[in-house]
Design goal:
- It contains 13 helices and 7 strands.
- It is of the alpha/beta class.
- The chain folds into 2 domains: 116 residues, Rossmann fold (3-Layer(aba) Sandwich); 105 residues.
- It is globular and about 50 Å long.
């Protein structure tokens, strides 16, 4: 079966190696992976900023490029949530687009949800030396129900999770929120960094690159040069 990989803007531009780890995992599960070369943004920044016209244009573009596939996998809860949850709001006044979206929506999966509930993978033990702590990104958790899936996959590869305090609390990024409300964002991520440190783990793992860059950036600015911040695809694929 064919999987369309929505690679996300941040992975494409900032950490393309994560995309290759994602492809390795999906192909290893027996699926053919296609990456539409013309894909761009899911429309979330425009949508969150109130530019519904641009967000809708980008949503229509995404539908055109991905509705051909058996599944659409997104290695980001925020982009996955935008496509699966908020496109319905953008297309609500267009019956034809709602029909097309209705066909696409059940095929859209966040990466770990896909690996657990569709591919039903059994990953071999890896060589990663834990423990790690896990940050639950807001959109993946609250919009897509991603909670147990990454932890069960980490257990498969032999990685122990040392849960941090308030692991479900926001990291303070929130896209343009971090730009508009810098002081509040900094206070939130400082609390997250303190909880990571208190967990006793030297690595924090997560499933959303926006959170990853925000947490890693703050750790480094605070002088922490040793705590690793990794996307779960990297750990599961053994690319660390």
């Amino acid at each position: 079966m064919r999987v369309g990989l929505f690679v996300t803007c941040l992975i494409d531009l900032m950490r393309p190696e994560i995309g290759f780890s994602v492809i390795k995992l999906i192909e290893g599960a027996g699926f053919e992976v296609m990456v539409p070369p013309a894909q761009t943004c899911c429309g979330q920044p425009a949508y969150n900023s109130g530019d519904r016209r641009l967000a809708r244009d980008l949503a229509q573009k995404t539908l055109r490029e991905f509705e051909q596939f058996d599944y659409i996998v997104v290695p980001s809860g925020s982009c996955g949530g935008m496509i699966r949850v908020h496109y319905g709001d953008l297309f609500g006044d267009d019956p034809e687009m709602m029909i097309r979206f209705g066909r696409l929506r059940p095929k859209v999966y966040e990466l770990t949800d896909f690996l657990v509930n569709v591919a039903k993978v059994q990953l071999p033990p890896g060589e990663f030396a834990g423990p790690v702590t896990y940050h639950d990104a807001c959109s993946g958790l609250r919009e897509l129900g991603v909670k147990t899936q990454p932890r069960s996959l980490l257990a498969q590869v032999g990685v122990t999770v040392a849960e941090m305090k308030d692991c479900e609390h926001c990291c303070g990024f929130g896209g343009t929120f971090a730009v508009k409300y810098g002081d509040i964002s900094t206070a939130i991520v400082d609390e997250k960094c303190a909880n990571i440190g208190a967990s006793g783990a030297d690595t924090v793992v997560l499933g959303d690159l926006g959170c990853m860059l925000n947490i890693e950036g703050r750790l480094r600015r605070k002088g922490d040069t040793t705590t690793r911040v990794l996307h779960i695809a990297q750990v599961l694929a053994g690319d660390v």
